[in-house]
Amino acid sequence: MDSFEFNKIAGAVLGTLLFAMGIGIVADMIFTPKRPVVAGYELPTAEPVAATAAAAAPAAAAVPLPVRMAAADAKKGETGAKACASCHSFEKGGANKIGPALYGVVERPKGAAAGFNYSAALKERAAKGEKWDFATLDGFIANPKAYLPGTSMGYAGLADGAKRADILAYLRTLSDSPAPLPQ
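Structure (tokenized):
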């Protein structure tokens, strides 16, 4: 092979490498990613429980409980309470599940379901003689963790006041002598 053939082959290889390197430089200039000033993502901060409870209180206070209860529909509440049926029973004499049986819960003393092991926080409230009235049930259903810190109930809560009132109306019907509506 003479030197002219060797120069053509070497020129072609070097030309191809130079072309590929040039394409890479141009592509980097066109498609350069924007680098963040600070590496990583900013994580959300946890809101204090007190702030969450304070935020839930004005929303619940927007329409008073007696007004919501007067407009409540127990049939809608029965439908809304189906999500609760995985942990609670609603039948008279029903067995405790993950949560206590809810038949007759309105005006029942807290921590009074026989055979259920309540959380320490609820046992403390029960020792004070507190009862499950409409207002306390409404607050508990709205946000169990904020209403009763230390509760073992894993439910996140129901923000819609009208739906909570429907559920309370349904719970009211689960009694031999339903409690009077709040005034």
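The helical segments are 3-30, 49-61, 65-70, 74-80, 120-127, 134-142, 144-147, 161-173. The chain is about 50% helix and 0% strand.
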